[in-house]
UniProtKB/TrEMBL annotation:
Recorded coiled-coil stretches: none
EC number: 3.1.2.-
Protein's name in the database: PaaI family thioesterase
SUPFAM superfamilies linked: Thioesterase/thiol ester dehydrase-isomerase (SSF54637)
Domain of life the protein comes from: Bacteria
Record CDD domains: PaaI_thioesterase
Entry keywords, A to Z: Hydrolase
Pfam families given in the database record: 4HBT
Domain Thioesterase: 51-129
InterPro entries named among the record's database cross-references: ACOT13 (IPR039298), HotDog_dom_sf (IPR029069), PAAI_dom (IPR003736), Thioestr_dom (IPR006683)
Hydrolase keyword on record: yes
């Protein structure tokens, strides 16, 4: 299967989000060529020592949606690895049931590397974090 077909097949199996997605309670919201959207609902388990959502939750959501956006562009048997990720945080998020939606889009997909960008917004549409990534493509 292509990357797009694989992700769509995964999304069609309700309640079977793999690995880190299951751990965070991630829901896949949209899958298109070069674009991937997923969300999580904050909970007390996500707290940092100050009682807000730990930045790693947004970083993980961003890494997931940007990487999956790249994955949607890959052919059968091809994969990717994150080479680097740069995250900027714009506001704190409470741990009490806020839906965070991450959207990743590809910027460039080449022969050996791909770049993508992503945003996380809260349930009021406010920007929480944004990021860029470079991925190594395994052909």
């Amino acid at each position: 299967m292509t990357g797009l077909e694989l992700l769509r097949a995964t999304a069609s199996r309700i309640g079977t989000t793999p690995g880190i997605g299951r751990l965070l309670g991630m829901e896949i919201d949209a899958i298109e060529p070069g674009r991937f959207e997923a969300s999580v609902v904050t909970r007390p388990d996500f707290a940092n020592p100050l009682g807000d959502v730990h930045g790693g939750v947004c970083a993980t959501l961003l890494d997931s949606v940007m990487g999956c956006a790249v994955h949607t562009t890959l052919g059968p048997g091809e994969g990717y690895s994150t080479l680097e990720i740069k995250v900027n945080y714009t506001r704190t998020v409470p741990v009490a049931g806020v839906r965070l939606t991450g959207v990743g889009t590809t910027v460039h997909v080449g022969g050996r590397t791909a770049t993508a960008q992503g945003e996380v917004r809260d349930d009021e549409g406010r920007l929480v974090a944004h990021a860029t990534t470079t991925c190594l493509i395994h052909r």
